[in-house]
Sequence to fold (303 residues):
Amino acid sequence: MYYITEEEVDRNLKMEEVVDALQDAFVHYGKGRAMASPRDRIILDGTVYNTMPAIDTELGIAGMKSYIAGKNGARFVVLIFDQKKNDLIAVIEANRLGQIRTGALPAMASRLLVKGKNHNLTIIGSGFQAQTQLHGMLTQFDVDKVRVYSRNYSHARKFATEMSRKFGIDVMAEETVKSALKDSTLVNSITNSNEAIFSRSDLGDEYHVNLCGGNLPMRQEAADDVLSGSDLVVTEHLDQSLSESGEMIHFVKNSGGKPVELKDVAVNREKYFGKGRTVFKTMGIGLEDIATGYLLLRKMKLL
Fold:
């Protein structure tokens, strides 16, 4: 059994390779060769313990992301089991792994849905996870303009300066969400907001929005009319989204919307590609973590 540290994760995982690995996993899922259960939370005395199980028989693995959060912070691990031998292959420290796969997943969903390579990109949010949201999208699209909006403008300016230097592009901080979204065709939102940050009127005639923040039902980054006004709404796991996503709960229960699961897009891309106005909502499922863990172990020549 291997124990993989955060430093080893950071040295060996590459964003472009994680994007490809996640697409393969969702193809397996769409073909019935993989499964994932919704997140399970146990809450007691100020501690939250989370488990996110999954299996991918195409890769021959099963496992889960498991993490604990409380007043002293959070700790994340991914467990990988050999499906045939029933052996525990690895325990992987997963803070950095989770950050990378959280950025890779919307990039993968976007390339399955969005026409063209040249786009203007807006990042809403400027925290830890926003960095890989930008990185993931830059691996898949030729971005002409990048704007960032944060409820704290100084945070947005700091993010813009650091990301401009890191990726060698011009990232501009905006003081309002309206100015940040002007002329943008790609939008990644990664916040913990309890109130909608932007609405349909802030967007143009064509757009693709990735809603990547918030996995509690009281949280909502986009107004209801962003989803109801779109041609296609995609979620990575319908059951989980109906218990964790404020946007998806409202879309289904109040608007009568019918979201498509990402696994169905992955195996039937031509049916869903290039719809004009699309939204993807992610909360994170264990399949993404074990697929990323499997890639890591292969890169390290441990499988």
